[in-house]
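Troubleshooting: if your tokenizer reports a length mismatch, compare your output against this known-good record of 222 residues.
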Amino acid sequence: MTNASRRMIPESFQRGFMTLLSPLVRLLTRLGVSPNALTIAGVVITTVGALAFFFKSPRTGGFLILLGGLCDAIDGSLARNAGKATRFGALLDSSVDRYAEFVMLFGIGGYFLMVDDYVSAAVTFLALCGSFMVSYTRARAESLGMAAKIGVMQRPERIVFLGAGALIHPIALKITIWMVAVFANFTALQRLRFAFKQDATPPQEKNQTPEFKSTPLTKGDA
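Known-good structure output:
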């Protein structure tokens, strides 16, 4: 495993988790649940979780963030398993993910303001900036024909860390928001460096690296 491919939640752990969720995906397929409806449900649940933070209920907010993240984790698998994977579905998923992440961090920032923790509120803003830059650097790099799906803190890490931190204790939430603020921005810089190295590669070598090809219908971690 290279330094660029290391993540705070290992890929092997994520694959194992998705394997555990496969019976749920098959059940939803048999029930005829729409992948797009599941995508929308994820952002709705996350929005309710964000509102819970404004009511000073971080544990409820953390639980709902994790539940919304679960919907986000399986909607792509559901689409492929049901034979309903479309380009619009991939676009909807990526777009809704950005809204979900915004409302999640907006709710957390609002909670810190309401408990008069202005430093943590400012750190939440940095976490928001880093989260969006992680997504933007990947999308922009892939639009230019380069790969950038690397980094220590991608979307699954941000959802799990913040949701679990809020569920455990407000102090744990404060620690995880600092982690996201630091490592999300670090991940964006990792992706820029990774793209730079690809652009500096001679053309004949680029043609020998098919792994850099993007797969538009595959769900991304952002």
